[in-house]
Amino acid sequence: xxxxxxxxxxxxxxxxxxxxxxxxxxxxxxxxxxxxxxxxxxxxxxxxxxxxxxxxxxxxxxxxxxxxxxxxxxxxxxxxxxxxxxxxxxxxxxxxxxxxxxxxxxxxxxxxxxxxxxxxxxxxxxxxxxxxxxxxxxxxxxxxxxxxxxxxxxxxxxxxxxxxxxxxxxxxxxxxxxxxxxxxxxxxxxxxxxxxxxxxxxxxxxxxxxxxxxxx
Length: 216
What we know:
By secondary structure, this protein is α+β, with helices and mostly antiparallel strands. The chain has helices at residues 3-15, 107-110, 167-170, 202-214; strands spanning 17-21, 47-49, 53-61, 65-74, 84-93, 96-105, 119-127, 133-142, 160-164, 194-198. Residues 1-15 form the signal peptide. It is a lipid-anchor; GPI-anchor.
């Protein structure tokens, strides 16, 4: 195999994203575009999370511009039913470590009363390159005594989060471009605009964004 072919393959693998926390099912660059979880099997050791509150989601991004959506499916095996939006679609400019420090969930967001021992699967979607989506999943279990360590979740200083609005926020990342427009559309600009914010204030931005979408 020629060296330029090897370099191209390495570039594709590093351009995907990794779900670091909660611990994901794994990473396979060749199957990551397969819905819903990149063709990876469920974890036998689920990450325990509190019955309500918030959890950090730590990612390593390989693209310099990415659209992301955070979804959840309830049950032992959600299949393709990831119908709960934990964080609507937004953009990130820059590659490296990216942290959503406080992804909120409660009975109102989930649509059910959470009980001790209930299982669920978290799905993170990114836009594909150039079409479709990339998927990473983490299997979790709601547990009354669970505690979450948020200290290791951090952001590379050069990253910027971009709040999508209108249709750009409503469509999931697997049908979105990195800039927020619909895949296959003639325009490469963000639909309805987007607002770039430094990640130093991501906690404030995240809380405001979640509140705004809760009112929609």
